[in-house]
Specification:
10-stranded mixed beta sheet, alpha/beta, two-stranded parallel sheet, single chain, DNA polymerase, domain 1, 18% strand, disordered C terminus, 14 strands, TIM Barrel
Length: 341
C-alpha cells in the first residue's frame, strides 16, 4: 500500500491520520508543529511522540519532504533549486537575496498550459499540477527556508490554474498551526483564470500580481493565449469589485518586448486603463531565449517607459533582473532542463 503524505494537511486532518493508526488525536497537533514550525524531515525526529508512535507513523505515512536534487548559484547570489515533481518531472524554485530580504519564487505546475509566447516555461510540454505537499516542500527544503522574508508564486505554472493546491498551500503558510506567515509577505501571480481568481480573492488575503503585458485586447491574446477566456474588460471588472485601498496590494506585471509592446501608444493606453487605481506596474525587460522570437527593449527604454507611466499618474517601477547567468530570471525557469520538449 502506498504511504500517504502528511505535508499540506491541517491539524484536524493530521489528528484523523493519527487516530487511524491507533494514536491519540492530540498527536496531530504535535505532528503539525514538527512538520511546519520545526521543519522535521522524518518521523524519527519527533521526539515528543512515543517510539511506538513514531514507528507507526513511519510505516503508514511520509512527511512529504524531499531535498532538492540540484542547486545553481548566480554571481549575484540568486540560487536556483531543482526539485523532483513525480513521474520523472522536475520543477524549479529561485531564491533571490536583496539586502536583508530573501524571496523565494515558487512553482505550482510542471510546465504550464498558458503558452505565453515569450515565456520559456510556456513552451514546455505540460506535465501536471503540483499538489500542496510538492509546493510546500520547495519552501521548507531550500537552504534558506527559515530566513525567507517573502514568497512569490511566479515560478513554473499558472497558480490559479491549480487553485485547490494553491489555496491549501496558502492556508498552511499563513495559519497559526502552519508556518504562520503574514499573507502580506506572499504574492500570487496570474494571467487571469476566472474561477481560480474569484476563489483566491475570496479565500486568501495574499497580494495579487496580474500578468498584463499589453493594454490592447487582441495583442494581449496573441501574447497570452489563455487570456481569451477572461478578456481585459471582464478581468478589470472583477478586480474593481475588490477593495485595494488597504494593505493588500495589487500589481500588474508587464514584460517589455522590444518593438512590440514598448511604444508610447502602449504606455498611454496602459495609463488610461489603470489611472486612479491603487496599484503598481512592474516593468520587466524580456530575457531572450531560443524558444521565442522576441528581443529586449533598447538600452534606456525601460526607464523611459517607467517615467511615462509615472508622469501619467500610474505608479511604475523597473524590476531588476536577477540570476540571469543561471537562467533563474523571469520567464526562463526550467529552460535548461527542457523537459518534455
Amino acid at each position: 500500500m502506498q504511504q500517504q503524505c502528511l505535508l499540506g494537511l491541517d491539524t484536524h486532518e493530521l489528528s484523523e491520520r493519527a487516530a487511524a493508526i491507533g494514536l491519540r488525536p492530540f498527536v496531530g497537533k504535535q505532528i503539525a508543529q514538527w512538520i511546519y514550525e520545526k521543519r522535521a524531515t522524518a518521523f524519527g525526529q519527533m521526539t515528543n511522540i512515543s517510539k511506538d508512535g513514531r514507528e507507526a507513523l513511519d510505516a503508514a505515512y511520509t512527511t512529504g519532504r524531499e531535498a532538492p536534487i540540484a542547486c545553481s548559484v548566480s554571481s549575484d547570489g540568486t540560487k536556483k533549486y531543482l526539485f523532483p515533481a513525480g513521474s520523472g518531472s522536475t520543477v524549479e524554485a529561485a531564491m533571490i537575496p536583496d539586502g536583508e530580504r530573501k524571496t523565494l519564487c515558487i512553482s505550482t505546475q510542471a510546465g504550464c498550459r498558458m503558452a505565453c509566447a515569450f515565456c520559456a516555461t510556456g513552451q514546455q510540454t505540460f506535465r501536471g499540477d503540483l499538489d500542496a505537499a510538492q509546493i510546500l516542500n520547495q519552501v521548507l527544503s531550500v537552504e534558506e527556508s527559515a530566513e525567507l522574508s517573502n514568497l512569490v508564486f511566479m515560478g513554473m505554472g499558472e497558480p490559479l490554474d491549480n487553485p485547490d493546491a494553491l489555496l491549501r498551500t496558502l492556508d498552511a503558510l499563513t495559519a497559526p498551526w502552519g508556518l504562520a506567515m503574514s499573507p502580506r509577505r506572499i504574492t500570487v501571480s496570474t494571467v487571469g483564470r476566472e474561477e481560480g481568481l474569484l476563489r483566491f480573492l475570496h479565500e486568501s488575503e495574499a497580494h495579487l500580481a496580474v500578468s498584463l503585458h499589453s493594454p490592447f485586447e487582441v495583442e494581449r491574446q496573441e501574447l497570452v493565449p489563455a487570456s481569451r477566456a477572461l478578456p481585459i474588460t471582464r478581468l478589470m471588472g472583477i478586480l474593481k469589485s475588490r477593495n485595494w485601498s488597504g494593505q493588500r496590494r495589487l500589481s500588474f506585471e508587464y514584460v517589455v518586448l522590444g518593438g512590440v509592446n514598448d511604444t508610447d501608444r502602449h504606455m498611454a493606453a496602459l495609463a488610461r486603463l489603470l489611472r486612479g487605481w491603487p496599484c503598481l506596474v512592474n516593468l520587466i525587460a524580456y530575457h531572450p531565449h531560443p524558444d521565442a522570437p522576441f528581443r529586449p527593449p533598447r538600452p534606456g527604454r525601460m526607464l523611459e517607459l517607467r517615467d511615462m507611466l509615472n508622469g501619467q499618474g500610474v505608479r511604475a517601477t523597473v524590476r531588476v533582473s536577477r540570476g540571469l547567468d543561471i537562467e533563474a530570471a523571469c520567464g526562463l525557469l526550467a529552460r535548461v532542463q527542457g523537459q518534455g520538449r
